[in-house]
Design goal:
single chain; alpha/beta; Rossmann fold; 2 domains; 8-stranded mixed beta sheet; 13 helices; 33% helix; elongated; binds flavin mononucleotide
Length: 401
């Protein structure tokens, strides 16, 4: 469990985005309870939050709690963080003034730990001295504010006031949780995505890797407190937050960057789908259309995993093996041939999993004897499970490096 968050939702048009915030927090391993203002229920039905969080939503202080752990004082003992998103001008003013006349403002006064506020409002409201002063008061008392974005607003105006991107809000929230991270102080190197090998000035040889698994792993590692270098080819997914990205294009560039970054890492997760072959010599300029077949000579690309596995000292090394089914022996043979410490057997045979898909089914196998099956799940969940399963071995290997 990453942390306990009370998500306070107030009555702005961006209230629907709080549903995504709840989902993302849960995906990243947080437990969440939701408190809404009465006005927020005009925008989103509390049932949505109740179903997704698995707990009743507090809207009124006058309802008898239907289960333990939802009343404001009990919640304040439970919570690590109060995240108010979206925060209306009204709730911000109430929080600054210490007003406690509904469930959310009362909870805020009872809350004992950190407060993160994600305002969202019309740009004229955002620049009102009353709002600015209230936010200054709250930050002076220790609250953190996620500055809204600029752009087109729901009301048709343009300017500052739009709720910051939900990913950013969740990232800031995770950063404010007490360090429960299983990987605190660990330095990880993750490779992700495909490589692109030039055929001529405009054509490339590449593969279908999207970078989803590698970026999910990098994000999960950062969320678990690790310091993460992400070495990636051209990705089809957004970069994770809170990691150091290093963009490369070809296998050769990846090889060079790996050689630079690996010595500083405690563990390396080689998830990138690096080309096995590349054109022996890229043609200068553009190949013209012509009659008949065209033969391009390909040369093998050095095995980057085996290269790293042969080094001493080297990071705890994890490789990925895409297999047509749960072929443990083949995956373990691959791990040994590369001198790796662990292998993630990725079953690409079951529909909807594997390269470019959102889900995966994996077996986590290690030279140290770990043999753990993770049934089909989203790549974020799989990533967390991989890291938590290997964290013991990974941490132990640091002392022997
Ligand atoms: C359609 C609509 C959209 C609104 N959007 C916002 C908003 O984005 N931000 C804001 O501060 N107030 C907004 N308001 C005004 C608030 O709903 C109003 O100030 C309300 O009293 C806030 O109550 P609460 O803070 O208890 O949720 C909106 C009102 C309406 C009718």
């Amino acid at each position: 469990m990453r942390g306990r968050v009370v998500l306070g939702v107030s009555g702005g048009i961006a209230a629907y985005k709080a549903v995504e915030i709840l989902r993302l927090l849960e995906k990243r391993g947080c437990e969440v309870r939701v408190v809404m203002t009465r006005h927020a229920t005009e925008f989103v039905n509390p049932r949505t939050f109740a179903v997704l969080s698995g707990f009743p939503v507090q809207v009124s202080q006058w309802e008898t709690p239907t289960m333990p752990g939802v009343d404001h004082v009990e919640l304040s003992h439970w919570a690590d963080l109060l995240l108010v998103a979206p925060a209306t001008a009204d709730i911000i003013a109430k929080m600054a003034a210490g007003i406690a006349d509904d469930a959310l403002s009362t909870y805020h006064l009872a809350h004992r730990s950190r407060v993160l506020i994600a305002p969202a409002m019309n740009t004229v409201m955002w620049w009102q001295p009353a709002v600015r002063e209230a936010l200054d008061t709250l930050t002076a008392r220790g609250a953190t504010v996620v500055t809204p974005d600029s752009g087109e607003l729901a009301c048709g105006d343009a300017g500052e006031g739009r709720l910051a991107p939900v990913e950013e809000i969740v990232h800031r929230a995770l950063g404010m949780l007490p360090p429960r991270g299983a990987l605190g102080g660990v330095h990880l190197l993750v490779t992700a995505g495909p490589t692109r090998e030039p055929v001529d000035a405009v054509r490339v040889l590449t593969n279908r890797s999207s970078g989803k698994m590698g970026t999910a792993l990098a994000q999960a590692a950062a969320d678990l407190g690790a310091s993460v270098d992400l070495l990636h080819g051209p990705l089809s997914v957004p970069l994770p937050l809170g990691v150091r990205p290093h963009a490369v294009e070809t296998a050769r560039e990846m090889e060079e960057a790996l050689a630079q970054l690996a010595p500083g890492a405690d563990a390396a997760f080689l998830v990138a789908a690096v080309a096995d072959f590349r054109p022996a010599a890229a043609v200068e300029g553009k190949l013209d259309r012509r009659e008949g077949h065209l033969a391009i000579e390909l040369e093998p690309v050095p095995d980057l995993a085996a290269g790293l596995g042969a080094r001493a000292p080297r990071p705890y090394l994890v490789v990925f093996a895409a297999e047509n089914g749960p072929n443990r022996e083949r995956a373990l043979a691959k791990m040994r041939s590369k001198g790796a410490d662990a292998v993630i057997l990725n079953n690409i045979a079951s529909p909807g999993t594997g390269m470019d898909a959102s889900d995966n089914e994996v077996w986590i196998l290690s030279a140290g004897g770990i043999d753990h099956h993770v049934p089909r799940a989203g790549k974020d969940e799989i990533a967390r499970e991989i890291l938590l399963t290997l964290s013991g071995e990974l941490l132990a290997s640091r002392s022997t490096r």
